[in-house]
Amino acid sequence: MANLPSSLKYEEIEKLPSTPGVYYFYDRLFTLLYIGKSINIRNRVLNHFNSKTKSSKNLRMYANVAHIDFEETPSDFGAQIRENNQIKSLKPLYNRKLQKYRKLFHYCTSKNTDGYLSLTIEPAQATSPDLFRQFGLFRSSHHALKTIKKLADQYFLCHQLLGLEKKNI
Question: How far apart are CA 145 and CA 73, in angstroms?
Answer without folding.
Answer: 27
